[in-house]
Amino acid sequence: MEKKVLTLNVNNQDYELYINPKTLLVEAIRDYINLTGTKRGCDTVSCGACTVMVDGMAVKACSVLAMQCEGMKIVTSEGLEVDGKLAPIQKAFLDEGAFQCGFCTSGMLMSAMAFIKETKGKPTEMQIREGIEGNICRCTGYNSIVRAIDAVVKGKYAEGKK
Amino acid sequence: MNRYTVINPHSKFTVINTHVHNVDGIAKVTGRATYTFDVVLPGMLYGKILRSPHPHAKIKGIDYSKAMALPGVKAVATGNDTIGAKQGIWRRYKDLCDEQLLTIDKVRYIGEPVAAVAAVTEEIAEKALELIDVDYEVLPATYEPLDAIKKDAPEIHEGFERNINVTRHIEWGDVDEGFAEADYIREDWFRCGGQAHMCMETRAAVSSYTPDGKLTIYHSNQSPYYMQGLMAGVMGMREGDIRVISPYVGGGFGGKFELDGAIFATAVLSKKCMKPVKIVFTREEDFIASKRRTPMFYYTRTGVKKDGTFLCREAKVFTNGGAYTGMGATALYLTGFFHSFPYVWQKGYRYDGYRVYTNTLPSTSMRGFGAPQAMWCSEQQIEWIAADLKLDPIEMRRKNSHYEGYEVPGQATIASCGINQCYDEIRKWIDSKGKLPKGHAIGLSACGFMSGGIFNWFDTPYSFSSAVITINQDGTVELNVGAQDIGQGSNTTMAIICAETLGCKLEDVKVHSSDTDYNPADLGAWGSRQTLMSGNAVKRAAEDAKKQLLEFAYAHSGLNIIYDLDIKDRWVHSVSRPERGWPYEEIVRKALRGKGGQRIMGRGFYTPYRKGMISPAYSYMLQGVEVEVDEETGKIKLCDSMTAHDCGQPINHLGLIGQLEGAFSMAAGYGYLEYMPYEDGKLMNPNLVDYKMIRAPEMPPANIAEIDTYEPEGPYGAKEAGEGLTNPTAAAIGNALFKLFGIQIKECPIRPEMVVNALKEKKAKTGK
Amino acid sequence: MSVSGPIICPVCGKKAKTGSAIDCARHMFGTGDKPHRQWVDAQGLSFIDLMIEQATTPGNRSYQLLADIIEKDAEKRQAAKK
Question: In chain A, which residues have their Cβ closer than 8 Å to the Cβ of B248?
Answer without folding.
Answer: 101-103
